[in-house]
C-alpha cells in the first residue's frame, strides 16, 4: 500500500499543485497567526481550488474558537480538521458535532508517558498525528522541524491510526518509516528553503525518499 503523504504549511498554488502531482494524499493549510506558514482562509481557498478531490484538504488550527473555525470551514470547506493545540476529548466531540468533519488530533511526543494521552481520545478522533513536543521557548506548537524518538512508538497498539510528523526530511524519512512502519507521514519545514517557503526540489527529494523506503518494507 502506498504511503499517505501530507504536505503541510502550503501557501502558493504552485507548491500545492506540485505536491499533488508528486502524489500527496493530503495538503495542509495553517491557520495560526504566529506561524510563518499562516494563511488567511480566503487565500487558502484560492490556493487549494485546483486540487479539491485529488488530495484531502486539511485545515490546521490551534485551540481555535468556534468563530475562527466557522470562518475557515465556510471559506475553505476542508476535508479534515487537524487540531494541533491542547483540545480536550470533549472539545473534539463538540467540534465534530458542529462541523461534521473528520478530526485528526495532534499529540506532542517526547517520552514514553506521552503515549498515555492517546486513550481518552480513542473512539473520538478519526486519526492521531504524532508530532515532537516543541522545544522550550518555542512560539509554535508544530512546524519546529524537530523529531521525537521514533522507537517510542514500539509500544503503540497497532490498531491506533496515525500520521507520523515532526522533523521529517528526505534524509531521515527512510529510517523513520523503517522503525515505525508508519503508513502516513507529514512534513512541513523539512521541505523549506526559509521558514514558510516551500522548496519544490526538497519536496521532490522527500517524495523520492518515501517511495524508496516503501520498496524496502518487509
Ligand atoms: O507548521 C507550523 O507552523 C504549525 C503551526 C501551528 C500548528 C502546527 C504547525 N505545523 C504542524 O507541525 C507538523 C510538523 O512540522 P515539521 O515537519 O516538524 O516542520 C506539520 O506538518 C504541521 O502539521
UniProtKB/TrEMBL annotation:
Query: What SUPFAM superfamilies is this protein classified in?
Result: Ribulose-phoshate binding barrel
Q: Would the keyword Isomerase turn up in this protein's UniProt record?
A: yes
Q: Which InterPro entries match?
A: Aldolase_TIM, PRAI_dom, RibuloseP-bd_barrel, TrpF_fam
Q: Which residues form the N-(5'phosphoribosyl) anthranilate isomerase (PRAI) domain?
A: 5-208
The organism encoding this protein is: Sinorhizobium kostiense
Any GO MF annotation of the entry: phosphoribosylanthranilate isomerase activity
A Pfam family that this protein carries is PRAI
- What are the entry keywords? Amino-acid biosynthesis, Aromatic amino acid biosynthesis, Isomerase, Tryptophan biosynthesis
Q: Which family does it belong to?
A: Belongs to the TrpF family.
The EC number(s) attached to this protein equal 5.3.1.24
Q: Can the keyword Amino-acid biosynthesis be found in this entry's annotation?
A: yes
Give me the gene this protein comes from. trpF
> Where does the signal sequence lie?
none
| Leading EC class | isomerase
Q: Which reaction does it catalyse?
A: N-(5-phospho-beta-D-ribosyl)anthranilate = 1-(2-carboxyphenylamino)-1-deoxy-D-ribulose 5-phosphate
Kindly provide the name given to this protein in its UniProt entry.
N-(5'-phosphoribosyl)anthranilate isomerase
Pathway the protein contributes to: Amino-acid biosynthesis; L-tryptophan biosynthesis; L-tryptophan from chorismate: step 3/5
